[in-house]
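Supplementary notes for students who missed Thursday's class. We covered one full example, reproduced here. Read the sequence, then the structure, then the short commentary at the end.
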Amino acid sequence: MSPSIVGIDIGTNTLRAVEVRNPDKARPTVLRYHEVPLPAGAVNGGEVLEPHTVAAALKVLWSGGGFRSRQVVLGMGSQRVLARDLSVPKMSLARIRQSLPFEVQDLLPVPVADALLDFYPISESTTEHGATVNGLLIAAVKAAVVANVAAARMAGLTTIDVDLIPFAVSRLLVTRPGIDGVVAVIDLGATTTSVVITRQGVPQFVRIIPTGGDDVTQAVATGLQMDAATADLLKRRVGLLAAAGARARGPRSGIHVDELSVNEPVPTDEAGAEIIAETMHDQLGSVVTTLNYYANTRPSDPVTAIVLSGGGARMPGLPEAVSKLTRLGVSTGDPLSTVGLASAIDAEALRLNGAAYTVALGLALGRAA
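Structure (token representation):
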């Protein structure tokens, strides 16, 4: 294996990459990191729609970031990726993977021929039918993966692995630090929110919710008739801290705007605060529903803590709101806690913006897992 690997996070608006030396060591070293913007429409929800455009952006990324390695790991985490519980007769992992096309057609929204399948073993048990392996079925629409790999190839890069983004995030924030217990990792991205529940660092449950921070930005922009950049700045400044004075425009069940309240609003931000709170009402409602589903199906393994990650996790007041809704301790994950930084890196700048590179760093480290 190359002494350094680059993880690439293909976002809707931005390409981010992190190069790591010795990813198989206890404390790998981050050598380089960089990001470049993407033209509108080139990528949607992490899926490359215009491979040539993305390839050109990757070349700019490599040049601007000074990346040395051309061996890369890509991530998939859109709604075109499915993760479901699956139990199969005990056999070698190679044979399980070979048998998947014959076992899982009824679980897939597309024909088996149009999907890439993998199996992540978690535990073994004995049933009336014999020894069983319990795990997670991972299925991705083949065309989406092929397009991302093609863009990397056009840029002169070699894709050595394609990883599930929720796995990469939980690996970096829970598995590597060795956080014990049953932990829910909630990653709030631009277009999706993923929930991974781990037990002793091993993923047990994965759900990808098709909403993210861009939905909040768009709601503010539409409601206040402003451009997206201004709306995004307002969202990042006001967040849920100003939700105390906001009121829902109609009766709701479940999470209420008042439950998202933390501090009194700045008067000029009241309208934005109300929109943010109402939009987050729906997003956090989906997260809570997901956590409740897990609790109902696995009552013996209750979630004991929540770790937040992703750009959305930086929204003011969000940790307090999630803690209030779930009645659990909530922390924001530190993606740099188990890695070293090369002397040439601007460590302060990276630490200030480290959350943005969580996915890329987790992907780079996943090659050694």
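Commentary. The first helix runs from residue 51 to 65. The radius of gyration is 21 Å. If anything here is unclear, bring it to office hours.
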